[in-house]
Amino acid sequence: MNVFLIVSIALTVVVVLWLLWPLRRGARRGTLTVTELNSKVYRDQLQELERDLARGQLNDANYQEARDELQRRLLQDVTDVPAPVVAKAPAATGVRGRWTAISLAVLVPIVAAAMYRGVGNVGAIDAVAAAALLSPEQKKQQEMLSRLVAVLEKSPDNYKGWVLLARAYRSMERYPESARAYDRAAPLVTTNPDLLIEQAEVLTVSANDDLEGRPMELVRKALTLEPSHPMALMLTGMSAYRRGEFAEAIAQWQKLLTVLPPGSDDARDVQSNIDQARAKGGPALAAALASAPAVPAKSADKAPAVASAGASISGEVSLSPAVQAGLSPDDTVFIVARPDDGSRAPLAVLRKKVSDLPLKFTLDDSLAMMPDRTISKARGVVVVARVSRSGQPIPQPGDLTSEPTAALAPGATGLKLVIDKKL
């Protein structure tokens, strides 16, 4: 809009000056005196005589005679004038000229603005100006995005493509368009907790950081699919905290602590949130928490010393030399036990680092994500090991993984897991 205003003002000034220029010249011409007029005529005629002399059409004697005659006529004309000043524009003409100038200066901008408001398109010049300010890389991204939109409109069932478009809009901070693209990929989004959380975050930003309503519906659906999803737990706790339900916020964030690395920056931030919720809740909340029945310990620094008898899976995990290139010793390793019924919710999770490999491990009920979902209660267990480049428990493209084991009965020992595949 600023560009449009600058261009409009500049053009209006040019037009007004162009219209006023003849009035200014006319005013100057209206003030000639008779003497000035006669002198001008004399100079023109004298210049003509000098040109004739130079061309040889007059000799010196004729030239001198003609010049003397001009001087006598000029002297006679000036002497015969009764008044010193004539041919001056009437005063009324000067007043009319000033009012004409003022009218033009005021009316031209007003009429131009009114006409453009009725038939113009302010956004057009802004769009052109904005496009001109884009870098070559940004222009290339815009062109690629336009081509992607055109392709997807012709193949609306390309849900992965719509997700790609939604993420592109999200990276460009075009959140409403990103949310609509996630909607177009609904059959894929509703089955993937990561995508559900992505859409919830986009909707939250679009609603001025308001989590309630549809964003929380998506978060709750993500938790149904993945009860230990870190971001879903964080957002659920945040929503409860904003509603003043501090006990619920603490419960969600305590679950989140069980999936975060002990002593990490994330864990410290979550613990700070918990402490703040306790302070907000006051004495009543403290009494309620103190009287609540104890939950089986799951924290990283206080696990039960002995797990349920026969409720463990043990073995060794190693890293294939073929996939070691590019890994950092601090990259996270997850060893996960899941039920063999197809559920993605883990029964136990052990978190280590690449520098710890090869590693002998034991998974038992002390590493359970939820008290009612443990190895001891499962009929069959599938175990897999994975290197997470992002540090997140949810598998991401580029992570390295082992082949999942066949279904194992609780109490199995001697497993050999080799991380040798790339997701």
Walkthrough of the structure:
The protein is of the alpha+beta class. It has 14 helices and seven strands. It has helices at residues 2-29, 34-55, 60-80, 91-119, 122-133, 136-154, 159-171, 175-184, 186-189, 193-206, 214-225, 230-242, 246-257, 265-291; strands spanning 313-319, 332-339, 348-353, 359-363, 381-388, 400-402, 415-422. The protein has a seven-stranded mixed beta sheet with strand order 3-2-5-6-7-1-4, with no helix packed on it. Helix 1 packs antiparallel against helix 4 (91-119) and helix 11 crosses helix 12 (230-242).
Overview in brief:
It contains 14 helices and seven strands. The chain is of the alpha+beta class and 423 residues long.
Structural features:
alpha+beta, 14 helices, 423 residues, 7-stranded mixed sheet, elongated
